Each structure stands twice: as structure tokens, then as C-alpha cells.
Amino acid sequence: MNKRFLFFFLCGFYCYSCFAQTEALKRPKLVVGLVVDQMRWDYLYRFYDRYGEGGFKRILRTGFSHENTYIDHLPTVTAIGHTAVYTGSVPSIHGITGNDFIIEHTGQGMYCTEDATVQGLGVEGRKGHMSPRNLLVSTITDELKLATNFRSKVIGIAIKDRGSILPAGHFADAAYWFGPDASWVSSTYYLKALPQWVQQFNGRQHGRKYLEKGWNTLYPIESYKQSSPDNNRYEGHLEGTASPTLPIPAETLLKNGLEVIRDTPFGNSYTLDFAKEAVKQERLGNNPEHVPDFLAVSLSSTDGIGHKFGVNALEVEDMYLRLDQDLAEFFDFLDGEVGKGEYTFFLTADHGASHNNPFFIDHKGAGGYMPQEASADYLNQALKQQFGYDSLVISTANYQIHLNHATIAAKELNEAAIRSFLVKALRRVEGVAYAVDMDSLSTGTIAQPIRERLINSYHYERSGVITIIPYPQWKGGNSSQTGTGHGTWNPYDAHIPLLWMGWGIKQGASNRVTFMTDIAPTLAALLHIQEPNGNVGRPLTDLLNLP
Ligand SMILES: [Zn+2]
Q1: How close is the Cα of 86 to the center of ligand 1, in Å?
Q2: How far is the CA of 306 from the centre of ligand 1 (A)?
């Protein structure tokens, strides 16, 4: 072999190796996250026999389910749940300590996504002054933006502002939520004006077509065997209806405009219709730069209906059967628009819900309502007798005691003595399992899983100094007697579904214990991007099937 030939041969081999190494990184074209607000894990199986093949069962059949996924923070409410799913982080780090929370040293209230520096688009006043500015860490959606030099598109959609804004993160192209008369609105944080396609969608008054049919049961009413008889005292009812029963005629639903759609199963259909429009109009999943896009959707109607009617209500069963059909349709749409197997889908919940208290107690279950001794008014009277000053407790919201630090400082009161007085007083209240001074978490006698959740959740500036943990199925004294609520560490509030399907996902299921904070780092692993900057979760590698 002459030298020149050898030279060209080696160059050729070298170039071939270069080309061989330039194969592009494989990623899904689109990630679709779906948070079903207030979906208990057991709704997957409670209504299993009634689901069709294309919705929940398609995910369970072709995707992966983490059957024992728990929330690792307190309280288990909407804003914190959505934040944890998308940040892999906990309130002590991400700073979202409630839907509403109180700044401990000033006593000022703050709404999780309030931002007075921005204006609404399509909405006036407070409902438009919204952004992710109070969120102190990055989201997985933010990290995707960073990883692709902002070429990925990220859009958040939910009826609730917080269900849309917190998942979409700081760098989103847009987040949309509900404005007047069921229109989709945003704020100047994201955009200068609502895009044409959003204005057109709003102009079509698309929600009306659902409400004009009324809310009838999807199947014959006698087939709803998983629910209580429809007319019972444990359920609240929709405004303008005489009883908590179906059907609800169109005239009743439409009496006060379209906004009522959020309290019907059609709020889910309507949200997914808007999500589909966003996929089409924004070309999500068909990014011209060949990078993944991210659509973060949250369904809020499941929470509204759950709160009103309760876990055992026929209305809730009907809603999940309808949601199952909506999901089947949504997957068919994504298969067509993005391509089957080309997108990664995951479904989870921000929290669950407990059984209705009177229902539970009537059936001889243990539970109750905490007496007025746990109320701010009562505690303030007791403190006044002991320390001589009024209103030392500012709030007991979110099961946390916030103190009046202005008075404590001005009157030079002994804060440690006040705290210890409150802890002692609260421990004597019926229904209180623990009353915990957050500064003595490490030495307090508290069951370890609860201690961990409390430590995860204690943000010095945005949490109260004492936390109350009620016994299972015990509620605050002012809680509604109808429907349901949530907020505690108990499995009914904290055991959530975690389902995955599509690109990069194996078929299977796991019963090992996993946490809400594991979702974001799993998505990071799947996408080959950095996990969010406050992440404390661990990637769930058992589901990955990466090319
Ligand atoms: Zn919620």
C-alpha cells in the first residue's frame, strides 16, 4: 500500500467516524403533563370496570404506573402540589407554602401567584395580576428552556391560575387561566397581548355547546353502584339547584353565564379543547428547531366537583367516567397531531381528598371536627389572660399558627413562652394528634414520616411557627359538613396516581414507594437535561426505556 493511498484511506476512516458520531440526541417531540386536581390514587381502581379502553386503561395497559406515590410536604393543597410536581422540590426551598400564605415576620398575606407588577390580558384587576414571581426555584419546564437555549416552547393551561402558572415556570411562552365568562386569559408577564388564536377561541364561546346539553348522567343512573344514592345530606349542591342530584338542566346551568362550566365535568373537556387548540396553533411537538416542547395542563373541575359533592358522590363517579372518555379523545388527537409514540405523557394529582366527615362518622368511622379551642379567637383570649395582650395569633390557616411579631417586639414579650403556652394548650384540644413548635422538630416526639414532611415544608419566612396535625378524618371546626376537603399527610390526601405513557416509557408497574418530588428529576433523566435547581427528588429509572 503506498503512503498516499494510506493517507487518504485513514482520512476517509476518520471522516466516517466523525459522521458516525453525529447522530442526533433522541428526545420526545413533546412532553404533556396532566395534573388532575384532587384525583385520589384509588379512583383508578374504584371506577376501573367502568372505564373504556382508550383513556386510563390505555395508560395502564401500554405505559407505566408508580402505584405508591406520596406527597412529601404539608399542607397537601393545590399550589404546593403543582409546584412540587414541576420542581422536584419542597416548600422550605421552593417557597410556595400554601395557596395563600402569611409572611411570618410582617403578618402580611400573599397569594401564591400574585404579582402587582403585571397586568391581566383579557381580565381586569386582581385575577390578572399573576405570575410565577413568588416561586423561588426553577421548574422542569424552565430547565427545558435553558437546555435548548429557549428554543423549546412551554405553555401552561388550567382553569385555576396557580394550576397553570406554577407548572409553566418562569420562562414559559405563556400560561393561560380562566377569566370572565369562561374566557382564557393571561398576563403581561408572558405576553404583550393575547394571541389571535386565543381571542378567536374565546370569541366562539365554545363552552356553551357543553352546557346547552345540561348535565345528565353518562350511563343509566341505576348503574352508579360505586356511589351513594344521589340525594343525600353529605353532598353540597350547585348554585341554583334545589338538591344535590343529577340531571341538572341546561337552563339552570346557563342562568349565570358560562363560568359555571368549571363546576361541571365539562370544565375538563373545555380545558382539553383549549389544550388541543394550543397544540395546533402553536405547533407544539413540531418544533422547527427539532427540540422538545412542553405542554403543562391541569384539570381544575375535578377539584371543584370533589369539594362540593365528596368522594362517594355519583357526580364524582360521573365526572371520572367522562374524564376517561376525554382522555381517550385527547390521546387520539395527540397521536394524530404529534405522532403515536413521539410524545411523553404523564398524569398525576396535586393532592387527594378525604371522605365526607358526617358520612364517615355515620358509618361508625372515627373522626370529628376540632372544637373552638383550636381557633384563633379562643387561643387569643387564652393568650391575653396569660400575657396581657390582644391578637397575638394572627392566623391558624393551613394548620399553622402565625404570631403577631410586631406586638411581641413592641411589648418585649417572651416569644418562647408564648410558643410553649400555645403548644401545651393545643395538645389538650380534641382531635389534635400533634402540636409542634417548628424550632424543636428535631427533638419533638413525632412519627418519623410526619417529621420529615414538616421539615420539608418549613420555610422560615412563609410558614407559621407552630403546626397542628389533626388525627385522621378530623377537620377544622369551620370545615364544611358537606362534600370534602384535603390538606393533611394522611393517605387519603397524600397518595396520588403517577402514570406515564409514550416516548421513552416502558410498559409495567411498580409498587415501591415513590414521591411527588421524584417526577421532575425523572423527566430530567428522560429529556437528558438538568433537574430543576431546587430539586430534592430522585429519578425513577425503572420506567425508562430510552433509545
Ligand atoms: Zn388542588
Answers
A1: 14
A2: 10
Distance of CA 31 from the midpoint of ligand 1 (Å): 22
Mean pLDDT by 10 residues, the chain (547 residues): 54 50 90 98 98 98 98 98 98 98 93 98 97 98 98 98 98 97 97 98 94 97 94 93 95 94 97 98 98 98 97 97 98 98 98 97 97 96 97 95 96 97 97 95 89 96 97 92 96 98 98 98 98 98 94
Side-chain half-sphere exposure of 266, counting CA atoms within 13 A: 22
What DSSP state is assigned to residue 398? G
- Write down the residue that cell numbers 356511589 correspond to: 227
Residue 140: Cβ within 10 Å count: 31
Task: Render the burial of 284-302: b for 16+ CB within 10 Å, e for the rest.
Answer: bbbbeeebbbbbbbbbbbb
What pairs with residue 432 in β-bridges? 470
Q: Which residue in the block uniquely carries the three cell numbers 411562552?
A: 173
- Which of 76, 78, 141, 396 is catalytic? The answer is 78
**Chain centroid offset of residue 285 CA:** 23
Residue of 351, 346, 400 whose CA lies nearest to 163: 351
Q: Let me know if 188 is a catalytic residue.
A: no
- Residues near 334 by Cβ (< 8 Å), separated by ≥ 6? 30, 32, 279, 285, 343, 345
487 Cα: distance to centroid of ligand 1 (angstroms): 9
pLDDT at 478: 85
| pLDDT reported for residue 10 | 52
| Contact assessment for residue 359 and residue 312, using Cβ atoms and an 8 Å cutoff | yes
Q: Tell how far the Cα of 345 is from the centroid of ligand 1, in angstroms.
A: 20
Nearest CA among 263, 471, 278, 257 for reference residue 357: 471
Mean pLDDT of the chain: 95
pLDDT at position 21: 59
The one-letter amino acid code at 18 reads C
* pTM summary value: 0.95
> What spacing in Å lies between the alpha carbon of 279 and ligand 1's midpoint?
24
User: Left if phi > 0, otherwise alpha if psi is -120 to 50, otherwise beta: which for 483?
Assistant: left
Find cell 425523572 and name the residue: 522
Residue 4 has a pLDDT of 61
**What letter represents residue 41's amino acid?**
W
